[in-house]
User: What shape does this take?
Amino acid sequence: MRWVRLIIGVYFIWQAINTLDSFSAFIGSFFLLQALTNTGCCGAEGCQIPNQKSNEINDHDKVDYTIIKP
Assistant: This one.
């Protein structure tokens, strides 16, 4: 994905230079920044799901049972 962002960024910068368009330069620099810093929509690996679940039991996860006899 990083290479795709780099290619898109270079293309938009090249297009901005040829057409003297500042919006294309902004979009190109945005994609180049993402490619150079390896970030995306949510940051570096921000959309990744955690590999392991925590086995810790918090106080609010504990359930107290009471036996009620008739």
